[in-house]
Amino acid sequence: MLELKDLHKSMGGTEILHGVDLTLRKGEVLAVLGPSGSGKTTLLRCLNFLEASDSGSVTFLGKEFDMSAVSRKDIAEYRKHTAFVFQNFNLFANKTALQNVTEGLTVARKMPKSEAERIGMDALKKVGLADKADSYPSRLSGGQQQRVAIARAIAAQPDVIFFDEPTSALDPELIGEVLNVIKQLADDGMTMIIVTHEISFARSVADEILFMDNGKILVQTDTKDFFEKNDNKRVREFLGSLSERMTFNENKDQKNHSAAHSSGTSDGKRGRVRKKGRRKK
Amino acid sequence: MNQRLADILLESFPRILTQGLLVTIPLTVLSFALALVIAMVCAMIQIANVRGLRQVVRFYIWLIRGTPLLVQLYLVYFGLPDLGIVLPSFPCAVLVFALNEGAYCAETMRAAIESVPKGQLEAGYCVGMSYFQTMRRIILPQAFRTAFPPLSNSLISMIKDTSLAANITVTEMFMTAQRVAGRTYEHLALYAEVAVIYLLFCTVITRLQAFGEKRLSRMNGGNVIRA
Questions:
Q1: What percent of chain A has pLDDT over 90?
Q2: Residue ranges of the domains in chain A?
Q3: Which residues of chain B fall short of a pLDDT of 70?
Q4: Which fold has domain A2-81+160-278?
Q5: What pLDDT was estimated at residue A241?
Q6: How confident is the model at residue B50, as a pLDDT?
Q7: Domains of chain B by range and CATH?
């Protein structure tokens, strides 16, 4: 449903993305991994036209967009079918949690207020924050703010959600609640691209892993193959540098939220079978 | 206090106050309202980076902030007639005060808008809102809250600055006091009296500011507005 071809992007005279391709099927969860500065966030921002691209094309829901010369109207049309979750939440500070979720529906989509609020409350319920509907962002914890941001994303009933390091700005003890919500979305069959540093999370939730290094995609492959069969030197180095942290995360997970946010092969296998079933080709 | 002085003060007080209410206040309110419009337009041109116009705005702000208000008043009132442009004193004062204050408030507003995290604009885009929708509903209300105290400051400055209009024959509060002082030679008493009335006006504005800040804070959901 989404196919990106040969995306180039420079910033301040330096090319950051050197011809990136990716494909995403409906219902698929794609995790983007890679070291800092490899262009993961830029890729995601270009994909939602938050950054202008130098060249490249994206085919989305059967329509092709030239990324370097896309019209404002086309961008608006494209964004009707996508949602974006930011690293820093970016909630509207002058709106309550519920208003944050309904704002796009009432203002951009001209939906009647009552209907928007019904959808908004459903979305907040889904992320477990129905009781915080009238709270302003400044009264919510980081984890709660990010969950409201996710509710805002799903309320738009998008065809795909882009997550830009959704837990990187959170205190460690708040990461789990956000990952649980994303995991639940994956179980519901939501199509997602998730840029993340949470390796064990990516392993348990993603169908495919896309590994970036230095503005290029080194690998896009099945999650299981990525972790078990991959012999790419850069990937091995990257995973090696993280292995200590992964072990630590696994221990913590088993203590705190063993069921939802965990890693390890057994859970991974279970996830694999279930997801294959729901994937529509 | 002798009887004569008391009589002069008592007799002049309502006259000065009336001129304040009839001239100083309207002059201030009109000029400031116009200044806010100018400031808003200038701030938006700079924020949206409108090519060409942006340079014009920078030039205007540079020119106004780099020259004294009194010189600007004289230029427009006594200077422009040489070019065949003659403005009556009151409209001339409104024009100059508005242009002057507009330049300062433009900078206040630009800074306030820029202080709202840019990510909220992007979030607006991502839920399908346009630039203007996001500006109007999300960014500007927060910027206005930030800009409110410095804008109140500007308003208070302006009330006092309108006394300069006496120089271009606008019979506002200060000129009225000046005339009584000239006639009675009671300079200390009269200028103290007009100072007290300015103080009174500014006190009212300060109270209104405190009230306004409280309301804005409630509308924006508490003291901390940045995530």
A1: 72
A2: 2-81+160-278, 91-157
A3: 1, 220-227
A4: Rossmann fold (3.40.50)
A5: 80
A6: 85
A7: 3-219 (1.10.3720.10)
Residue to substitute from B116, B127, B131, B137, interface A, most A β-carbons within 10 A: B127
Distance from CA of A138 to the nearest CA of B (A): 6
Question: Nearest 10 degrees: CA dihedral of A188, A190, A193, A199?
Answer: 0
Q: Which residues of A touch B126 (CB under 8 A)?
A: 48, 50, 79, 82-84
What does the alpha-carbon distance between residue A190 and residue A155 come to, in Å, rounded to a whole number?
Answer: 13
ipTM for the whole predicted complex goes beyond 0.85: no
Written as six digits, the tokens of A5 are: 């071809």
Smallest CA–CA distance, residue A74 to chain B, in Å, is 12
* A76 chain-B contacts, CB cut-off 8 A: 128, 130
- Band of residue A232 on the pLDDT scale cut at 50, 70, 90: confident
Option in A50, A96, A152 nearest B127 (CB): A152
Q: Are B107 and B45 in contact (CB under 8 A)?
A: no
Is A93 within 8 Å of B221 when comparing Cβ atoms? yes
Distance in angstroms (rounded) separating the CA atoms of residues A6 and A212: 14
3-class secondary structure, A1: coil
Q: B117 in contact with A at a CB cutoff of 8 Å? A: yes
Hey, which residues 6-65 in chain A have their CB within 8 Å of chain B?
A: 48, 50
Strand order of the β-sheet with A192-195 is A82-85, A160-164, A192-195, A29-33, A208-213, A216-222
Put simply, the answer to whether A93 touches B220 (Cβ < 8 Å) is: yes
Compute the nearest-CA separation of A231 from chain B (Å).
Answer: 38
Q: Residue B92 and residue B178: Cα distance in Å, rounded?
A: 21
Cα–Cα distance between B156 and A90 in angstroms, integer? 35
Vertex B209: Cα angle to B207 and B215 (nearest 5): 110
Contact B130 A76 (CB under 8 A): yes
pLDDT at A224 over 50: yes
Most B-contacting residue of A94, A101, A109 (CB-CB within 10 A), to test interface = A94
Q: Which residues pair with A82 in a beta bridge?
A: A160
Q: Which residues of B165-202 are buried (b: 16+ CB within 10 A; e: fewer)?
A: bbbbebbbbbbbbbbbbeebebeebbeebbeebbeebe
pLDDT of residue A243: 66
Shortest Cα distance from A71 to chain B (angstroms)? Answer: 13
pLDDT of residue B96: 97
Longest Cα–Cα distance in chain A: 55
Rounded to whole angstroms, how far apart are CA atoms B16 and B204? Answer: 17
Element (H, E) at A143: helix A142-155
Q: How far off is chain A from B215, nearest CA to CA, in Å?
A: 13
| 3-state SS, residue A161 | strand
